[in-house]
Amino acid sequence: MKFLFRLYNYHFSKDKNFAKRLRSILGFTPYNIALFKLAFYHKSASTEKLYAIRSNERLEYLGDAVLGTIVAEYLFKKYPNKNEGFLTKMRSKIVKRQSLNKIADKMGLDVFLNQYNNTKLSRSMLGNALEALVGAVYLECGYYKTKNYVINKILRSYLDIHELETFDDNYKSQLLEHCQKNGQTVTYKMLAKYKFEKRDRFKVAVLIDDKKIATADDFNKKSAEQTASEKAMQTLGILTETDS
Amino acid sequence: MKFLFRLYNYHFSKDKNFAKRLRSILGFTPYNIALFKLAFYHKSASTEKLYAIRSNERLEYLGDAVLGTIVAEYLFKKYPNKNEGFLTKMRSKIVKRQSLNKIADKMGLDVFLNQYNNTKLSRSMLGNALEALVGAVYLECGYYKTKNYVINKILRSYLDIHELETFDDNYKSQLLEHCQKNGQTVTYKMLAKYKFEKRDRFKVAVLIDDKKIATADDFNKKSAEQTASEKAMQTLGILTETDS
Fold it and tell me: Which helix (H) or strand (E) holds A48?
């Protein structure tokens, strides 16, 4: 029965163009077209009263959870000897906002979003739509088919897991390496140590050839230096592609 | 075949007592006894090098994700007209640390934990073991059976979802109500407004009959008042059971 609906959706319905384009990113024609359309409605496209049910926010909430579990299990099985800290870090590299925005962009979800929204697209609308799409796939196909879809059509198609694994988010060492290549010196300077909610907090600056490039605050001096280094790399335009 | 193993585990194995007690909380006898034992090993029970694979941390990581998705879907379907904000808030009320610790306590997981660990039990070890148990059930039974288990044996058995729904985490109004009953007056006083990382931040105090009971900082004055009220209620010992 569902098969007939899918056939109809693909060939005859008024949404056949949408269905065809969806098929190219899903690998199947959806049965419940309205559900998949909903995945691309940003809340600004609806009235305030109705946006709960006429925007992709609920689907995004569901898809976010489902995607998180699929990625968690994928990593759990891929790395049987790694500890929880490694797995959690890898997972957040994959499901973090920037990463999902980038995947959604590669998948071409902007085309769908442009069709259903009048507002200007923001980067985060891309990642949200990807989560909402996973939510829609889950409702239509259940957990295991969604898992196959996510692993084969998303993770394996758009992510280099080994690159992520070795991807260095130690910004301090990256900045150092970059500056050494250019014969520059990097130094860190503690600008202030103060009490915040009864805890010590540090403000540090990173200087390149004695010129202050960025500052950051943290409860931990080393973390403040990391954040300052990351900011400096953004300022200098040398953040690596994986994190952009 | 699995059936025979289960029969053996329950009646003849050296772990038959463990299997019997597990059956009482799971509703089935596990096939992979070692996996379920692992769910109760705190990392302190292993050497540092091996704790990644000989403690419940990896299972907890997996179970946390699976539980989060099951609860997310349960709420998504239970409240078809509620917006994402409501669903997210309800979900966090259910899966937050304190809530899981309390459920695990009611389930009697402390007995299992005491058996496999030499350290003194902390409250958070209970919630962690519950997540690890869900992880083990998932690995043994797959998504749908785990979903049934979580909904029927955990959510419906140990949580009052309607109480959670109406549970008031507006500490300001709760504190006010409490004090009015006792003929006391509640006032809030802004102690400081200062810049923190370029944003305004507020320090407020809550006073009962002009006596300062608690203070809190936040970027938002109202949130600071909420937090101060919560702290005041803790100090006065009047926080409601659901949140303890």
Answer: none
Helix (H) or strand (E) holding A54: none
Which among A60, A62, A215 is the top mutation candidate for probing chain B, defined by the most B β-carbons within 10 Å of its own β-carbon?
A62
Whether A191 and chain B come into contact, CB under 8 Å, resolves to: no
pTM (two decimals): 0.74
Residue A208: helix, strand or coil by DSSP? strand
- Asked if A53 and B88 come within 8 Å (Cβ–Cβ), the reply is no
Per-residue H/E/C for chain B = CHHHHHHHHHHCCCCHHHHHHHHHHHCCCCCCHHHHHHCCCCHHHCCCCCHHHHCCHHHHHHHHHHHHHHHHHHHHHHCCCCCHHHHHHHHHHHHCHHHHHHHHHHHCHHHHHHHHCCCCCCHHHHHHHHHHHHHHHHHHHCHHHHHHHHHHHHHHHHCCHHHHHHCCCCHHHHHHHHHHHCCCCEEEEEEEEEEECCEEEEEEEEEECCEEEEEEEECCHHHHHHHHHHHHHHHHCCCCHHHC
pLDDT for residue A136: 97
Catalytic residue status for A73 = no
Buried b (16+ CB within 10 A) or exposed e, B25-51: bbeebbbebebbbbbbbbbebbeeeeb
Give per-residue pLDDT as tens, A43-81: 776 666 666 677 899 999 999 999 999 999 999 999 999
pLDDT (tens digit, 9 = 90+) per residue, A177-186? 888 888 899 9
Give the position of tokens 């923190």: B196
Contact B152, B145 (CB under 8 A): no
Q: CB within 8 A of B161, min separation 6: which ones?
A: B78, B155
The residues of B annotated as belonging to the active site are 64, 131
Nearest to B52 among A53, A73, A83 (CB): A83
Q: Looking at domain B2-166, does it have CATH number 2.160.10.10?
A: no
User: Which of A67, A36, A35 has its CA nearest to residue A150?
Assistant: A67
Q: How many CB atoms lie within 10 A of CB B217?
A: 18
Q: Compare CB distances from B69 to A69, A84, A197 and report the shortest one's residue.
A: A69
Kindly report, as residue ranges, where domains of CATH 3.30.160.20 are found in chain A: 171-243
> Is the confidence metric ipTM above 0.90 for this complex?
no
How sure is the predictor about A197, in pLDDT bands with cuts at 50, 70 and 90? low
Every domain of chain A with CATH number 1.10.1520.10 lies at: 2-166
CATH architecture of B171-243: 2-Layer Sandwich (3.30)
Name the active-site residue from A60, A64, A230, A243.
A64
Gyration radius from chain B CA atoms: 22
